[in-house]
Amino acid sequence: NSVLLSNTYHGDKGILKFDTDVTEIQAEAFKGCSDIVSMTLPNTVVTIGGRAFEGSKGLHTILLSESLKEIGTKAFCDCISLRSINIPNGVTEIKKSTFQNCKKMLSASYSKTATSIGEYAFSSCSSLTSITIPNSVTSIGDAAFAVCSGLTSITIPNSVTSIGNNAFQNCSSLTSVTIPNSVTSIGASAFQNCSSL
Q1: Do the Cβ atoms of 145 and 131 come closer than 8 Å?
Q2: How far apart are CA 116 and CA 140, in angstroms?
Q3: From the CB of residue 98, how many other CB atoms can be counted at a distance below 10 Å?
Q4: Which of 7, 14, 44, 162 has its CA 20 to 30 A from that of 134?
Q5: Are 74 and 68 in contact (CB under 8 A)?
Q6: Residues 23, 45: contact at Cβ < 8 Å?
Q7: How does pLDDT run across 6-20, given as a tens digit for each residue?
Q8: What is the pTM of this model?
């Protein structure tokens, strides 16, 4: 069963705690809650809805539950203080704009079962310096890593068949790209303005 959010938000400390075995955080549940700085999801959570934490500008530490199966569109978009993310193995799709504009994100560890990285998923994550895409991914969406200006290298695994339009556009620090034989389609402007290549 899906459980509506029942939580304790300790705004004075900026720590989000859950006092129940919640299974779903619904759409826009904590959108714009700028005072949250850290949260740990209970292992019962399987779904984070669209825009659930969008614009939570103070959020810098997240521990996602290993039981998580779905992260909605724009769930963590504009979380400009977020430093890193470890996406659990149950998540198969990184959706549109999930982590867009997380400007301070230094590292992202991906689900080993993810099959797609959606449009704008990590766009404008300007502090990312390297990415390891798992061998399960078959497609990289439009502008998925556009304007990741700190990104220096990328190895695209043999599982990928398509790279979307503008996928790595304006990655100005990118000096090394490995594209395997499996890729049959590279979209328009996929590496446009990668001036260090």
Answers
A1: yes
A2: 6
A3: 26
A4: 44
A5: no
A6: yes
A7: 334 444 468 887 777
A8: 0.90
